[in-house]
Every structure is written in C-alpha cells, then in structure tokens.
Q: What sequence folds into this?
C-alpha cells in the first residue's frame, strides 16, 4: 500500500513535474496554503490555475482559508530582507507548519513541497524547515530538490502546453516590490 503524502503546492505550473515524479510511489493529496501571495487577486489567479490542473488530472486538493494577517505578523521585522534572505525560511516554515498540522490531523504519512522546484528559492532553506517540522510533528518530510534534471523547465513547458499561466514573481508583496524595482533600473 502506498504511503499518504500531503504535498504543499505553491502554484499550478510548479506542481506538474512534482506530481508526476511522486505519484508512482505515493498516494498524493495537494494542499494549497499560501497566505503570502499578494494581492488577493494574484492569490486567486494562482488558485484558479492550479484548480484547472487538479480538475484535469483528478488530483485531490485541499483549499484552506486565505488569512494573510497571521502571515504579515510572522514577517514583522523581515520586510526589508531581500528575496532568498532571512524572510524566506520564516515564510517557508509558516506555510509548511500549517501543512504538517493538517497532515497530522488527517492521517498522512509524510509531507513534501513544490517550493524546491523554483530556481528562485534556496532548496536548503526549504528542506531545513521541513526537516525541523518533521521532528516537531512526528511526520516524515521528503527533502527534495525538484529543480534538478530540468524540473522547473519541464513543469513550465507542461503548463504552457495546458494553457496554464505562470506567475511573474514569488508571490509575496516584498518580492513583487523587489521585482518592480529591478525592472525600473
């Protein structure tokens, strides 16, 4: 019998390669918990693009409520940190903690995240948070680097073929501002 794996999903395009890689070995469910994504219309855009994919491939998905107030409180004091800086591991932990909590409450054997597929994320930051939470919750974490072997490019190509749009920034308001400032220079 396959182990039940709860996959924290950041967005639709990034989920494609990850899901394909894991589905042979695990019984998968997706967990779209991303209160970091700003503004809300961007959160909804990403949720709807993921929903298209989930419906097409019959992926079981969990859609927790979007409450950005707690996320902003957790980021207090880290607002000026650059992308990949000290804010990111706190954000990863925030989202993964909710994922682990749900996994424990609903009998999942392990947790993974699509976050490590992004070339803009530091995989070691994601995996260290996942491993720490694994100890805290007593549930295994799958410390992967899904960007290996062109994972990101593969996911992006699949998304384009399906007509699923890819976002233009990490998702948080701070990364959006950082991107806009880079574009202006």
A:
């Amino acid at each position: 019998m396959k182990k039940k794996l709860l996959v924290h999903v950041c967005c639709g395009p990034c989920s494609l390669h990850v899901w394909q890689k894991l589905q042979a070995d695990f019984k998968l469910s997706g967990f779209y918990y991303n209160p970091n994504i700003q503004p809300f219309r961007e959160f909804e855009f990403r949720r709807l693009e993921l929903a298209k994919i989930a419906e097409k491939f019959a992926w079981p998905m969990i859609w927790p409520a979007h409450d950005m107030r707690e996320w902003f409180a957790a980021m207090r004091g880290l607002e000026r940190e650059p992308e990949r800086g000290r804010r990111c591991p706190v954000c990863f932990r925030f989202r993964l903690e909710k994922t682990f909590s749900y996994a424990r409450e609903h009998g999942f054997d392990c947790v993974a995240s699509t976050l490590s597929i992004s070339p803009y994320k530091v995989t070691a930051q994601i995996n260290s948070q996942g491993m720490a939470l694994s100890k805290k919750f007593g549930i295994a974490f799958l410390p992967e680097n899904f960007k290996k072997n062109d994972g990101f490019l593969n996911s992006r190509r699949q998304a384009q073929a399906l007509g699923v749009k890819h976002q233009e920034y990490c998702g948080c308001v701070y990364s959006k501002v950082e991107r806009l400032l880079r574009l202006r220079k």
Q: What stands out?
A: The chain has a mean pLDDT of 94. The chain has seven helices and five strands.
